[in-house]
Structures are given as C-alpha cells and as structure tokens.
C-alpha cells in the first residue's frame, strides 16, 4: 500500500506543530522520519493514525483521500502503529492483548480466544517472532513485548506500519533483532515509517530519510549520508558527535560501596552483595540489560530503597540509613531514569522545578518566606546557561519537549554544590543536540573533581563517557573493565559471561 501525506498542517493554538509536511512511502520501503524531540514527528504520525485531525492537507492511501475520525478508521484502512510506550495490558496473555479492540466472537457471542491464539502463532511463525500466545505480557522481556505490539498491528492486516521511537526501551541486542524484523516486514511488502533520532539506526535500515526541524521538512537524505550531515540537518548547526574528554585527573576514593544488597518487599534480591569504588574526577559507567539491578542500585544510593544492607560511604560518611533529604543535602545529585515521574513536577513552572532540591533553605527561603526575586534571577540564569528552550521561566515544565525537560533536571542537579553525581539514563529519549550538551556537562562535572556514576543501556554512551565500565547481570557485578573493551565483549558480559582479566 502506498502512503502519501500532502501538505499536512497541525496547529495547537499559536503553535504550528506541523507546517505543510509532505512525504511518500512506497510498499516495501522503510522511510525514516528523523528529527529532534519536539520537531513534530510524533504529531504528524498521530494525524496519520487518526488521533489528531489535520487543519490542512490530505492523507492518501493508494491514490484515495482518507478522512479519519479516529484510530479505528486508520486501522480499518490498513495503518498500524507501534508506540514508544507499549499499549498492552500487563496481566493479559499475548492472545488476549492481540484480540483487544478486534474481538472475534463464536457461538452465542462468546469470545473466540482460540482464533486469536492461532493468529498469533501464524504471524509469529511467518516472521520468526517466537512468541507464545499463552504467555502473560508482564512476564515477557521488553523486546518480546514489542513483538506483541507488532503482531497486534499485523493481525489487523496493516499494510502501513508506523514505528514511533521503537528502540527507546530496548537493549543493543534487542535493537538489532528489531532491525531484522523491520527488514522482514519490508520484504513482505509493508510500507514502514520509522521515527527516530538515533543516527546509527537510520543509516542501518532506512531506504529514504526525511528530516523535520521545528515542524517543517528541511530536507531529504540518502542512507549513505554521514552522521555529521544528518545531525546538522536535524539541529540546524554542526554537532559534535564524539565526547571530548581528556584523561581523568583522579583523586582519592570518594564513594566506597561495600557488600551492598537491595531486597524488595516481596523478598526478591535485586542487588546482590556488590562492592565498588569511584574516585574523585572519575566516571564509572554501569552497563547492562535493563532490569538487572541498575535502578535499585541508583535508588539505594539516594535512600529511595527501604531494604538495604551493606555500606555506602561518601567522603567518609555513611549514607545507608539516612533519609533522601539528608543524602541530597550531603551533596548527592540525581538525574533519574524517568524524568516525568521522578525528575519533574509537570504542572509546576520551570523556575519552581529548578529549586525543588533546595526549596527549604536559603537563598530561596528566608524566615519561611519564598524569595521570588532570587528565584527569578537564578532561574533566568540557568535557562540561558543550559539552553532550555522555553517561552520563559514561568512555563510549566510538563509543556516542554523531552530534551528540554531533561535539561531542566540536569541544570537543577549540576547547579548544586555536588560531592557525587548519579546519572541514570541521562539522555534517554533525548535528541542528538541535547545529547551533545548533556554529555559535555557530565564531563565538565567529572573534570571539576566530582565522582560520577552513569547508568545507561546505550553502549555507545557508556563507552563515550566512562573511565571504567561496570557490567551488571542479575544484581551481580560481572566485571569492571576499561572503556576500550570491544563492544562484542561488553555484549557477552551483559549476558553474564565473565571474560579473562575482568575485575569483579
């Protein structure tokens, strides 16, 4: 099925999110839509999927103009969408999820679950997905859950498939598997729209590339274009894609973690007797497949886990047993992995979010009174210094693009007097321009003598920032290795294999 978008314009009040965007996707083609966060990519796809109605322009399928009033119309016309955040019911089986919204009925109107099971098996065997229709979704790895989303779309005979930032929650191995699936779908004649800001993925699978910036198409490129060329088109300026950092100027051991163990309320062990140190002026980067104890480790360092044993010493002071407030006041900065849930208060202004960690002390509060002039000067300075693109400091943080939300969190944490920085997935869901900026700030923090713990599922990021790499698997340290360790070796370590020479 051939897809054409002709002059699509979508406005939200005075903001023009899509400005006369046109593109064509042929059957058997992977067309990549590349752009920064907030460029208008997802808005355009939501128009295509019937979630928004365009103010101007046309959606054309096989030379017929479409008039969608909702996602049901889009699905009926042969459009399927694989969302960045999965639209699955965790406690349902695969077959039950695939049936949702498209329920087949049998005798006396009863649900025909067997038909859904057979459809899952048929699609899974055709594309080599290896998905059990009777598996409960919440028990499946993230990569398999994404396959369930694809099966849902294919079960409704989708001929146009939209992948919206599909690798945001995948490991490197799962990402490689998804690229293979996309090639299979292409060979089967599907028209694929691939939304991303990751240049490696674009060049690996795209047949055509359309670049969007600030709601407009700014150009088209071939997959042979260099990363620098694509990045410059995305952000409108040359972008430094490599992290520039000199050799570390190491000081004493500042953070000493000994026999750390984290157990949840059900008795499951998430961090199992691990020990490591970080020196002043050093970045220790933690690599591993998501769900192997990284989240629990960072939360234990911040006092966010209830059942923690062992020792966490920062500059000779014990952190285990202290409150979150006491740990923050001890100089620990925290960039959480989920900025919207743990990093920001969306309805509060940018200025209010900037002072969240210290709203109880001077200079922002004196004798119980908020010092508005002080806050305004401080927030205006950070807005400019950290290049947060917003109308002003009174803008609610929840209205910012993902990259600018992350900059607010980074600005707040790095503007404090830090003794340790814990950065969990610091560039997750962030565009290439913001990644460059955030990496620069982390390196500057390291160069100022602060010990830094970075947790990331992006191997490129781990290797770029690390002075040493610690690999976690099922709550254990597989090894601590130098950043020039081959990518293949790191990948094996992430599956639990320990190479010779790895310190643990």
TrEMBL record:
<keyword id="KW-0547">Nucleotide-binding</keyword>
<dbReference type="InterPro" id="IPR003593">
    <property type="entry name" value="AAA+_ATPase"/>
</dbReference>
<keyword id="KW-0813">Transport</keyword>
<keyword id="KW-1003">Cell membrane</keyword>
<dbReference type="InterPro" id="IPR017871">
    <property type="entry name" value="ABC_transporter-like_CS"/>
</dbReference>
<feature type="domain" description="ABC transporter">
    <location>
        <begin position="255"/>
        <end position="499"/>
    </location>
</feature>
<dbReference type="Pfam" id="PF00005">
    <property type="entry name" value="ABC_tran"/>
</dbReference>
<dbReference type="GO" id="GO:0005524">
    <property type="term" value="F:ATP binding"/>
</dbReference>
<dbReference type="GO" id="GO:0005886">
    <property type="term" value="C:plasma membrane"/>
</dbReference>
<keyword id="KW-1278">Translocase</keyword>
<protein>
    <submittedName>
        <fullName>ABC transporter ATP-binding protein</fullName>
    </submittedName>
</protein>
<keyword id="KW-0677">Repeat</keyword>
<dbReference type="InterPro" id="IPR050107">
    <property type="entry name" value="ABC_carbohydrate_import_ATPase"/>
</dbReference>
<dbReference type="InterPro" id="IPR003439">
    <property type="entry name" value="ABC_transporter-like_ATP-bd"/>
</dbReference>
<feature type="domain" description="ABC transporter">
    <location>
        <begin position="3"/>
        <end position="239"/>
    </location>
</feature>
<keyword id="KW-0067">ATP-binding</keyword>
<dbReference type="GO" id="GO:0016887">
    <property type="term" value="F:ATP hydrolysis activity"/>
</dbReference>
<keyword id="KW-0472">Membrane</keyword>
<dbReference type="InterPro" id="IPR027417">
    <property type="entry name" value="P-loop_NTPase"/>
</dbReference>
